[in-house]
Amino acid sequence: MGTLAFDVFTSERDDCVDPAGVTCQHCDLGTTAFCAGLTTGQFGRFIAVLEQATFEPQSTIFREGDPAQHLYTITVGAVKLYKLLSDGRRQIVAFLFPGDFFGLSGNGTYAYTAEAMLPLMACRFPRRKMDQLFKDLPMLEKKLLGAATQELDAAHDQILLLGRKTARERLASFLVGLWRRLGGSDDHPAPVALPMGRGDIADFLGLTIETVSRTFTGLRRDGLIFLPDASHLVIRRPKDLARIAEGL
Amino acid sequence: MGTLAFDVFTSERDDCVDPAGVTCQHCDLGTTAFCAGLTTGQFGRFIAVLEQATFEPQSTIFREGDPAQHLYTITVGAVKLYKLLSDGRRQIVAFLFPGDFFGLSGNGTYAYTAEAMLPLMACRFPRRKMDQLFKDLPMLEKKLLGAATQELDAAHDQILLLGRKTARERLASFLVGLWRRLGGSDDHPAPVALPMGRGDIADFLGLTIETVSRTFTGLRRDGLIFLPDASHLVIRRPKDLARIAEGL
DNA sequence: CGTATTATTGACCACTCTCAAAAAACGTGG
DNA sequence: CCACGTTTTTTGAGAGTGGTCAATAATACG
Q1: What pLDDT sits at residue A25?
Q2: What is A164-245's CATH topology?
Q3: Which pLDDT tens digit goes with each residue over B174-198?
Q4: Which of B105, B135, B138 has its CB closest to that of A149?
Q5: Strand (E) or helix (H) holding A212
Q6: CA of B167 to C1' of C19 (A)
Q7: Closest CA of chain A from B175, distance in Å
Q8: Are B156 and A93 inside 8 Å of each other by CB?
């Protein structure tokens, strides 16, 4: 999984060159990118420890229990993180999109399996080079702490959802959040493509496929959402759906 | 809520003096303490931004939505963090004990309410002084990132528990984890005091009080645990209880 | 002790799960 | 492009885990 040039992406900072002499493959994340705000000199040290990685859809990036050798941040695509019980029960703990991090570990091994849901591009940082990088660029450590804090908030929201919300409230919460993250507009009825199937949604919301399907049908029948097909979503009444999500 | 001297605690580092001239109130956390590993000079800067805070049992430390002005680390006592839905449904997102942090915020307001479960002593750091402190003592930022990572792992475990485990598996997981954290021994049958009631356990495990009570009775009838009274626990067969917790 | 709170137990109910089948969508090769 | 098989989604009927409502028992506290 070597360094690749993604020259399909236009660069806003064409002064940045990686050590191999290849024009740096920028993501289009702007100020939310991990590397945003670095000077050219800092960026050189940054790019020196960075690896670009690509993964096929449905491919496993790492498994629960593997030694935690890399930290990842997504530039293009989507990832699911999940944990398994020995009898096969699965819980998806997060869906991640461009700008999100994964692979942080407390004990040296990954606590979850990471799997690409779409063709994936990610920046990858070897764990053993991170200490030096943080010493050089303390701001990166701050950004990482901020990202971890946000992930913790999201995890707490998910705990509230799983512990205390009904199936209808769970799906409403999920769709409202996803709609926002995927750029759905409250005014324009442009459908948003859902990158995951009913099974993944079920394993994220602590439900079964059948209950997810029935609940989709219920929201559709009540005019809250519109489904051009099973994997495309329009939220017709965002305010009402958000109220349901909060249990109102 | 001013600075207090907790001279009931014996000090291992009696060379440390806070700016007011009072002998520093050490916690007995050893190498796990936030301040562990600091030199005397560093410790001076550390203590300069630190406030000591005490809280009565059942008192609220801060509420969900309050401006996030402080970061806390527990020295003595126990804390619960919870979120509420508008109709009163409550989800406890964490029980915290000495050495644990709380109060990190992504958006400037607390995402949960924090309440003392026991007489509480905590070190408190004003958010506006943290940047300077991190610049002086970068190791503290590393420790905080490590703590946030651990909390994130714990949150993911709780997500798995709430999404995919049965009531029996949930209580078994909870008791095994609590037993370890409160210093229960696999050999000695010394009961451990549970600092929370059935209602708190229910709101942590996503169950009702009645189901928690019935499940306690079930584990007791099966000889896995022993309850001298409702708030004291002995785990009789730790291995078997741990197997139940993992769904085996 | 008497009172209030908390925990336990019981009977019944409902939300979601399980099992099953039908329908729709997708992919592949002819 | 269509026929076919596979996979995914939807829908249906029935069952079960855990919830609700209610009463009793135990505990804590003045």
Answers
A1: 59
A2: Arc Repressor Mutant, subunit A (1.10.10)
A3: 999 999 999 888 887 789 999 999 9
A4: B105
A5: helix A209-221
A6: 23
A7: 18
A8: yes
Question: Which nucleotide is closest to the Cα of B210 by its C1'?
Answer: C8
> Residue A130 and residue A50: Cα distance in Å, rounded?
10
B128 min Cα distance to partner chain A (Å): 15
pLDDT in tens, A38-86: 888 888 888 889 999 999 999 999 999 999 999 999 999 999 999 999 9
- Rounded to an integer, the average pLDDT of B29-57 is 88
Spans of chain A below 70 pLDDT: 1-26
- Ramachandran bin of B71, using left for φ above 0, alpha for ψ from -120 to 50, beta for the remaining angles: beta
Q: Are B246 and A84 in contact (CB under 8 A)?
A: no
pLDDT in the model for residue B189: 78
pLDDT at A14: 39
The gap between B179 CA and D19 C1' (Å) is 28
Query: Do A164-245 and A30-156 have the same topology in CATH?
Result: no
Extract the tokens encoding A76.
Answer: 């293009």
Interface of A with B (CB under 8 A): 83, 85-87, 89-91, 93, 104-107, 111-112, 134-135, 138, 141-142, 144-146, 148-153, 155-160, 162-165, 203-206, 246-248
- CATH for B30-160 is 2.60.120.10
**A30-156: CATH superfamily:** Jelly Rolls (2.60.120.10)
Q: How far is the CA of A210 from the C1' of D11 (A)?
A: 9
Does pLDDT of B208 surpass 90? yes
Cβ contact B230 with chain D strand, < 7 A: yes
Query: Residue B7 — pLDDT band, cuts 50, 70, 90?
Result: very low
pLDDT of residue B25: 59
d(CA B40, CA A244): 55
Which residue in chain B is spatially nearest to A156 when comparing CA positions? B93
Would you list the domain boundaries of chain B?
Answer: 30-160, 165-245
A157: which 2 tokens?
Answer: 């929201």
User: For residues A83 and A167, what is the distance between their CA atoms, to the nearest angstrom?
Assistant: 21
B36: DSSP letter: T
- d(Cα A154, Cα A147) in Å, to the nearest integer? 11
CATH architecture label of B165-245: Orthogonal Bundle (1.10)
pLDDT digits (tens, 9 = 90+) for A94-103: 999 999 999 9
Our measurement of CA B121 to C1' C6, in angstroms, reads 27
Q: Give the mean pLDDT of B43-50.
A: 88
What pairs with residue A82 in β-bridges?
Answer: A92, A113
